[in-house]
Amino acid sequence: MDEANVEDGRRKPSIHANDWNESLCGCFSDLKICCCGCWCLPRLFGENAEKIDGSSCVGMCLAYWLLAHCDLCWVPHLMKRKKLREKFHFKEDTAMDCLVAAFCAPCAVCQEARELKLRAGPLGNANVAPIRRQPIVAYRK
């Protein structure tokens, strides 16, 4: 097991900078993501796509669902997985990504969701700046 960081009294796994922290077969480590991936995979894919590069969640969900009917949903999945690798500077493995997107899509989408959740931290993907007090303006007489 990896060395753990302690933050707010909770143990948090250390994050590997250039590789997956979440296993492809670790679906049961987060049951909410696992259930969403099992029963509503296009939705989870859409949420992931939005977090990866700001794509429309609904648009990607519909595209994935429509392409799944002709066994081509692996195409957008492969593209988003590649963008995820670029975003987190993972080592490139196109052959494995093709195999995973084509034959293990539910597990791969769940892996990506868990990785995004882990790397987002406690604030999620919120783009938040610290609150600053406005300076008091004093006028001279």
From TrEMBL:
It comes from the Eukaryota. InterPro entries: PLAC_motif_containing. It holds the Pfam family PLAC8. Belongs to the cornifelin family. NCBIfam families: A_thal_Cys_rich. This is Uncharacterized protein.
